[in-house]
Amino acid sequence: MIKKQMKKKSTKANKLERLDKKYLWHPFTQMQDWQREPQIIIDSGTGCTLTDIHGTTYLDGVSSLWVTVHGHRKKELDAAVATQLRKIAHSTLLGLSNVPATILAEKLVKIAPKGLTRVFYSDSGSTAVEISLKIAFQYWQQKGPEFTSKTKFISLREAYHGDTIGAVSVGGMDLFHSLYRPLLFQSYKIDTPFCYRCSLGREYASCGLACADLAGKMISEHAHETAALIIEPLVQGAAGMLLSPPGYLRRIRELCTRYNILMIADEVATGFGRTGTMFACEQEGVVPDLMAVAKGITGGYLPLAATLATEEIYQGFLGDYRELRTFFHGHTYTGNPLACAAAIANIDLFKKEQTLAKLRPKVRQLTKELKRFGGLAHVGDIRQKGFMVGIELVKDRATKEPYALEEKIGIRVVQECRKMGLIIRPLGNVIVLMPPLAISVKELMRLVDIVYKATEKITEGAQASSR
Ligand SMILES: *Cc1c(COP(=O)(O)O)cnc(C)c1O
């Protein structure tokens, strides 16, 4: 009987594996490799673990791509979505309003940096970024004839703001973006403020933030033709968890104010506690003019995003109907009630469970645990901001020579982790740790331990075989 059931289960699993390989096209994935190798299909999850169709359980070390905050199957979030489901699953914000979208808007404004007072919803980080770019552009077009030349954007090298064309235009990751260049609008690029590989060859803090001075030069030169500067505050996530030096963000805010360009903070990755505070901007006392949020907003439950704006920007869109100052933008599922209900419950949990206060000792513990990695011969740099961690592997620590792409060093470490029951995802040669904020200390220690063992095995093993 049991045997029969197991057989049935494994046949079903085999079928799913066949269907995946036959019909799915996975994001950011070379499908030729995908087809050849065994893959994991997730069936369920609870807390910080995921279970696949064979019943194997893994720690979720990437928060299901940086979104999970309070864990999977969180009672309060499940209940919030179920309750909303008994009322209505979707209703539009175009020409109508709905209850959860209204309640959530106030909650977002209350937790956001002071001065951001208006909420425009969409469904992904990319759309939240597109919206911030279009609002910034239109704002100046409507402000007066002396400002209509402000049509361009300034962004950072190695920036990642999403995959839609506008977001890619202000992106700076050549590996992902260079092919699309003919489709993109031009944006002026500031060098990445990244101390481990400082493009100016300087050292913090004796450099006096020379990178910010350089940014200032670019901003002052182009301010008259620039609508906005967009930046990932404190951490350039997808580029490999590049941390900007303390004070940099503050300086950028001051420069944007001085030269009269809008500052857009892309808090899609950093928002909702990821860096230790609700939003990364808080850590340098910065209030952006526009702020894009997504990923953690629903605690990882449903796709939802928002672009927050200051009252001054919002006012710039008011006027007689015939003036056409309307922001002509909106996605079909904008302000989806189910997603908003999840987001409300998620934000309430931050207070109820003291998520940020409980995070602090875990962040310190993690910092302590990560020190061990410094003893590995191929660990070049260990970067951490709150619960965003990047461990950069290098071929040669003295020269900082990177591993070649085809060595797939990050991928190999991650595969080794899977064998030990942990799911993480690398960014090139950088091993990324992004645990859910609610992870227990015990699980956190296990996570670090697995990554350490896998890194040691793959990097020190690789060194031995190449000799
Ligand atoms: C993930 C991410 C985006 C894109 O969000 P999607 O929901 O994947 O479109 C934009 N900006 C940053 C900083 C991100 O990390």
List the main descriptive attributes of the protein structure presented here.
467 residues; Aspartate Aminotransferase, domain 1; 2 domains; four-stranded mixed sheet; globular; disordered C terminus; binds pyridoxal-5'-phosphate
At the fourth level of CATH, the homologous superfamily of the largest domain is Type I PLP-dependent aspartate aminotransferase-like (Major domain)
CATH level 3 topology of the largest domain: Aspartate Aminotransferase, domain 2
**In the CATH classification, which architecture of the largest domain applies?**
3-Layer(aba) Sandwich
**Unreliable parts:** 463-467
Distance between the termini: 54 Å
The whole-angstrom Rg is: 23 Å
Give the rounded overall mean pLDDT. 96
Name the overall outline.
globular
Number of helices: 15
How many domains make up the coordinates?
2
Query: What small molecules does the structure contain?
Result: pyridoxal-5'-phosphate
User: What share of residues are in beta strands?
Assistant: 15-25%
The helix-and-strand class reads alpha/beta
What's the helix and strand layout?
Layout: H1 2-23, H2 31-36, E1 42-46, E2 49-52, E3 57-60, H3 63-66, H4 75-85, H5 99-111, E4 116-122, H6 125-143, E5 152-156, H7 165-169, H8 174-177, E6 187-190, H9 210-222, E7 226-231, E8 235-236, E9 242-243, H10 248-258, E10 262-266, E11 290-293, E12 305-310, H11 311-315, H12 337-352, H13 355-370, E13 379-385, E14 388-396, E15 401-402, H14 409-419, E16 422-423, E17 430-433, H15 441-465
Parallel strand pairs: 3-16, 5-6, 5-7, 7-10, 10-11
Antiparallel strand pairs: 1-2, 2-3, 4-12, 8-9, 11-12, 13-14, 14-15, 14-17
Helix pairs in contact: 4-12, 5-12, 9-10, 13-15, 14-15
The structure holds pyridoxal-5'-phosphate (PLP).
Residues 124-126, 129, 160-162, 232, 237-238, 266, 268-269, 294-295 line the site of pyridoxal-5'-phosphate.
